[in-house]
Amino acid sequence: MGSNTSWINRIVAAGITIVMFSVPAWPQDARLQDLYRDLADSGPKQAIGIEREIRHEWSRTGSPAIDLLLRRGRDALERGEIVAAIEHLSAATDHAPDVAQAWHLRAQAFFAQDRLGLALSDLERALALDPNHFQAAFGLAAILEQLDRPEQAARAYALVLRLHPHYEKAREALDRLEARTGDQTL
Fold this sequence. Notes:
The protein is mostly helical. The protein has a domain at 2-130: Alpha Horseshoe (Serine Threonine Protein Phosphatase 5, Tetratricopeptide repeat). It is 78% helix and 0% strand. The protein is built from ten helices and no strands. The longest helix has 20 residues, at 2-21. The two termini are 28 Å apart. Mean pLDDT is 88; it is low at 18-27.
């Protein structure tokens, strides 16, 4: 068990470091960068539309084949067909390793199977490629919370709220952590 804990500690530390200090490994689309900036500065009503546009951009890779794999993986996830989702998304990560959304979606599938180490690894990769990917950061925070690492989870949720100030699930999670620990300065 000690070696598993040590391995997870290293993954968590690497993930937090990447989230907090990384820059994209690949140049990002200027439109997506503009949308991220707009989202960070938006009001609650505008955030809904901007988030929708960002999600659309995440699904557009420039390759119809990779877009299809992402769509099939996402659809399989929604239907609860986790093995099929992992197969489609693994094909996407194999053929387009620079697509953050493929790594993020596959992390969701691994999380659904309670394979937290693999989920953390994929989230680390997604965030290395796109440090503004607020859903990947939220996934990291949720796993840290599940692993009973409230301080690290709180930092990750706070990052999500810096990227997307109106991400209600992140706000609720941060409030829940603060209430649980009684520490308003997590």
